[in-house]
C-alpha cells in the first residue's frame, strides 16, 4: 500500500483495546490520532502504546523501519474534533453503554469528514442500534477482535442493514493491510458470532469447575491443548470432516451428530450465575492465577507470536525478515 493510500486513523478510547489498535496501526507506519474523554487516561496512554509497538517489533509482528518513526506521528487529540477532523477511519474503542456509544458516534459524525467511516469495536452492540440517530448510518459498522487486538489475526465485521457495502469492502481492505483476516457477518446477531462462541464454551468450562468435575487450571489446559489446537488448525467443521476417513463425510457426520446430541442435552443451560457462585469463581481464578498479570501477558504474547508463525501465511514483514535473516528483529530471534 502506498503512503498516500494509508488511511489516517483516529482511535477514540485510550483504554486497553484502544491502545492496542493504535499500536497496530502505528507499527505499520499509519498516521494515528488518539483521544479519550478521560484526559488523565489519555496522558498515560502514550507510554503504553510505545511499549506495545516495541513489543510487536521484538516479536517479529511489526516492520522495524515503519515502527521506528511511528510514535513520532502519534497525535494526542486535544478534542474530539482535533482527533477525527481529518481521519478517513475512526475506530470507536470507548467502553461505554449503548446510550453512551450512541451519543459518541453521533458526536463523531458531527465533527468528522463526510467521507470518513466509523467502526465501533464492540462484541455486544449492533450497528443498527448504534447508528440509530446518525445522518449517515451507511458509513457505520461494528467490528470485533479478540484480546490482544494488536496480536490476534481475525477481525469480525458486522454491518447493519443500512451500511454501504462499499464501506464494508474498504474497511476489510484496510484491516487486511494491517495483516488481519476479516470475516463479514451476513446479518446482526446478539453478541456477534465470536462472542456467542466464546460465551457458550466459557459457560461449559465454568460449569465443569463449579460442579467439581475438573480443577480450574486443568480445564484451561483441556481447552488450550485440546480443542483450541484442533480448531486453530482447521476449525470445528473441517476438523469433523477430516475425521471421516474411509467411511465418507456424510456417514461420519451423521454418527458424530448423534453422539453430540447425547451430550447437548446435558450441557449447562443456565443464563446467569448466583452471587455466591460468581464470587466462588472469582476466588478460584484469583487463587490459581496469582502471578503478576503483566508477566502472564508477556508469556501469552510470546506464545501467540510463535503460534501465528505456524498457522498463518507469512506476512510482508516476515518475508522481509527472511530476506535479511541477520536482522536483530528477525522472528527467529524472538524469545
Short description:
The protein has 14 helices and eight strands. With 335 residues, it is of the alpha/beta class.
Strand order, largest beta sheet: 3-2-1-4-5-6-7-8
Number of strands: 8
Q: Which architecture of the largest domain does the CATH hierarchy give at level 2? A: 3-Layer(aba) Sandwich
- Listing every helix as H and every strand as E from the N terminus to the C terminus, the arrangement reads EHEHHEHEHEHEEHEHHHHHHH
At the fourth level of CATH, the homologous superfamily of the largest domain is NAD(P)-binding Rossmann-like Domain
Question: What is the helix tally?
Answer: 14
CATH topology of the largest domain: Rossmann fold
Report the span from N to C terminus. 30 Å
Give Rg in angstroms: 22 Å
Major sheet description: 8 strands, mixed
Amount of beta strand: 5-15%
Descriptors for this entry?
335 residues; alpha/beta; Rossmann fold; N-(1-d-carboxylethyl)-l-norvaline Dehydrogenase, domain 2; 2 domains; 8-stranded mixed beta sheet; 14 helices
Molecular structure report:
This protein is of the alpha/beta class. It folds into 2 domains: 188 residues, NAD(P)-binding Rossmann-like Domain (Rossmann fold), CATH 3.40.50.720; 139 residues, N-(1-d-carboxylethyl)-l-norvaline Dehydrogenase, domain 2 (Orthogonal Bundle). Helix 1 packs across helix 2. An 8-stranded mixed sheet has the order 3-2-1-4-5-6-7-8, sandwiched between helices. The radius of gyration is 22 Å and the shape is globular. The two termini are 30 Å apart. The protein contains 14 helices and 8 strands. The C terminus is likely disordered.
